[in-house]
Amino acid sequence: MARDRLFIYGTLLPGLVRPPLDALVARMTLLGPATVPGRLYELGPYPGLVLVDDAASLVHGELFELPRDSAILSALDDYEGSYLYRRVECRASMPSGETMACWVYECHADLSRAVVIPLGDYREWCRMGAVANRGR
């Protein structure tokens, strides 16, 4: 069930998440790397994902099992805010080919001037220095 899992693709990823959210993410159980069909955009110091039906356009991230504590999603919903991101259901694909229903935070901002992250991988984008090199 989607309510049991969360696909993370950006600044909530372990190694990128900042306090106090790092304590929330630490309570989740990593299921492994996963992808969802979508496009990833750079929005300054964080990315935004838009789900698409095109399986050729993938966003890379990690799938987590959520603890049985509704406060986790409530806190993440508060952090993500309803004006820029909305938690929606989708299906994530694991490297084994298995797909799982999960939650993801989809961006609902105006992306007409946003830069597409070409490989759909925010960690790699950060490693390449793309965010820092853009002066943000």
Explain this structure to me?
- By secondary structure, this protein is an alpha+beta fold.
- The chain has one domain (2-129): Gamma-glutamyl cyclotransferase-like (Hypothetical upf0131 protein ytfp), CATH 3.10.490.10.
- It is built from four helices and seven strands, in the order βαβββαβββαα.
- The strands form two sheets. Strands 1, 2, 3, 4 and 7 form a five-stranded antiparallel β-sheet that branches.
- The chain is globular and about 40 Å long.
- The protein starts with a strand and ends with a helix.
- The mean pLDDT is 91.
| Total beta-strand segments | 7
Determine the structural class based on helices, strands and strand pairing. alpha+beta
How far do the termini sit from each other?
A: 37 Å
Mean pLDDT: 91
Strand composition percent: 35-45%
- The CATH topology comes to Hypothetical upf0131 protein ytfp
Query: What's the overall geometry?
Result: globular
Residues in helix, %? 10-25%
Order of helices and strands: EHEEEHEEEHH
Write the layout of secondary structure elements.
Elements lengths: L4 E4 L12 H6 L2 E14 L4 E5 L6 E8 L4 H11 L4 E9 L5 E9 L7 E2 L5 H6 L2 H4 L3
Antiparallel strand pairs: 1-4, 2-3, 2-4, 2-7, 5-6
What's the short story on this structure?
With 136 residues, the chain is α+β, with helices and mostly antiparallel strands. Helices cover 20% and strands 38% of the residues.
List its salient traits.
five-stranded antiparallel sheet; alpha+beta; Hypothetical upf0131 protein ytfp; two-stranded antiparallel sheet; single chain; about 140 residues; globular
